[in-house]
Amino acid sequence: MTAPVVVLVGPPGAGKSTVGALLAGRLGVGYRDTDADIVATAGKPIAEIFIEDGEPHFRELERAAVRTALDGHPGVLSLGGGAVMDDGTRKLLTGLPVVFLDVELADAVKRVGLDAPRPLLAVNPRKQWRELMERRRPLYTEVARAVIATGGRTPEDVTDAIMDALELRPAADPAHPAGREEQA
Predict the structure, then answer these.
(1) Distance, CA of 7 to CA of 67 (rounded, Å)
(2) What is the mean pLDDT of residues 47-72?
(3) Within 10 Å of residue 38's Cβ, how many Cβ atoms?
(4) Which contacts of 46-51 are long-range, i.e. CB under 8 A and separated by 24 or more positions?
(5) Which of 64, 69, 149, 181 is the most buried (most CB within 10 A)?
(6) Residue range 117-174, pLDDT digits in tens
(7) Of 35, 53, 62, 27, nearest to 173 (Cα)?
(8) Whole-structure pTM value
(9) Contacts for 87-92 with beta carbons within 8 Å, 24 or more apart?
(10) Beta carbons of 108 and 114 less than 8 angstroms apart
């Protein structure tokens, strides 16, 4: 089993995709998003899966995508916002370097507009987002080794905070002489 170097969790608008890609670049590893894996497997957007097949079917696809990614992705992994709702997924995350990207509603609104095609936020998105976070926040916190507040921070700042919290070092740049000297 090759476990991820970092697993990002959090609600819609937390910045998992943006920060995940940045973090992967800094660490010199690959980036993977289980939502993208689900879309590729199903051959349709998540919103369509919810509408056409229902949330239980989506959650089955999500469980399988998370399990596959946790077993074989050695880089940075972002999980869909609801992945932590599954007991089995939370068990799989035990002992892994999980980071909860915590975001307040106002920042989430700015980032995703809450009018994007997000099926669980379709009706009264602000109220739905608050209720979703009331249910999920304790679960995000339960699985997290570190909690990083994203409010008022750039993706670069959040990436720095993750690296500090998990004591990660950037990938050595072979073109930079200092990187080679440290290894000598």
Answers:
(1) 12
(2) 93
(3) 20
(4) 46/80, 46/117, 46/119, 47/117, 47/118, 47/119, 50/119, 50/120, 51/119
(5) 69
(6) 455 455 566 677 778 888 999 999 999 999 999 988 999 999 999 999 999 998 875 5
(7) 27
(8) 0.84
(9) 88/63, 89/63, 90/139, 90/142, 90/143, 92/66, 92/67
(10) yes
Provide the token pair at 71: 């077993």
Residue type present at position 130: R
Closest CA to 139 of 107, 184, 91: 91
Q: Tell me the C-alpha distance between 84 and 141, whole Å.
A: 10
Q: Is residue 149 classed exposed, middle or buried when 0-12, 13-18 and 19+ CB atoms within 10 A define those classes?
A: middle
Position 114, amino acid: L
Single-letter code of the amino acid located at 110: K
Residue linked to tokens 């009331």: 134
